[in-house]
Amino acid sequence: MSLTARRATPEDGGLLLDMSRAFHLEDGSPLDAAAQATLGDVAAGVALAPAYLLLENEDVVGFFILTLGYSVENGGTDGFIDDIYLIPQVRGRGLGKRAVALALEEARKCGIRVLLLEVEAQNARAYNLYLDAGFTDTKRRLLRLVLAPEDDPA
């Protein structure tokens, strides 16, 4: 079991989009057109959202995307594991733990001081994986407000 991560490139855009669609369908939140378009920017290397492919030997088996922000409360640069995904065929073999460790390693390289993530309430397996990796439940609620309409490219 050898899992590594490498930065996604523009050539990986289609693969990243396919895996992201699968992840979001599985999660119950299909990607809208704006999110799909944004994945092209992510694969192209947008600075605030480095994307990584997860490889077992030479085979792509998943991905994760970090997003960078800035927070006074968190002492500067913070980040979010926006998505982390392993294809169903490789789950249950301990790769999730390694995938999270790789995301943490890359977050440190990006200068992220505090890393956040969200997990669906019904996904107890992932929740426990993240707790085991050192994340703590903030007992806060994540709220969302869309400021730009979907058809606005900004």
Report what the structure shows.
The protein has a single domain (3-132), classed as Aminopeptidase (3-Layer(aba) Sandwich). The protein has four helices and five strands. By secondary structure, it is α+β, with helices and mostly antiparallel strands. Helix 1 packs across helix 2 (33-44). The chain is 33% helix and 25% strand. The radius of gyration is 15 Å and the shape is globular. A hairpin with a 2-residue loop joins strand 2 and strand 3. It has helices at residues 13-27, 33-44, 95-109, 124-132, and strands spanning 3-7, 51-56, 59-71, 76-86, 114-117. The protein has a five-stranded mixed β-sheet with strand order 1-2-3-4-5.
How would you sum up this structure in a few lines?
The protein has 154 residues and is α+β, with helices and mostly antiparallel strands. It is 33% helix and 25% strand. The protein has one domain (3-132): Gcn5-related N-acetyltransferase (GNAT) (Aminopeptidase).
Care to count the β-strands? 5
Please, what is the average pLDDT? Answer: 92
* Rg over alpha carbons: 15 Å
Please identify the top-level CATH class. Answer: Alpha Beta
Low-confidence stretches: none
- What kind of sheet is the major sheet? 5 strands, mixed
Structural class assignment? alpha+beta
Gross morphology? globular
Helix content: 25-40%
Number of separate helices: 4
Order of helices and strands: EHHEEEHEH
How many structural domains does the protein architecture include? 1
Quick one: CATH superfamily?
A: Gcn5-related N-acetyltransferase (GNAT)
- Strands of the biggest beta sheet: in what spatial order? 1-2-3-4-5
The first-to-last residue Cα distance is: 42 Å
The CATH architecture assignment turns out to be 3-Layer(aba) Sandwich
CATH topology description: Aminopeptidase
Strand content: 25-35%
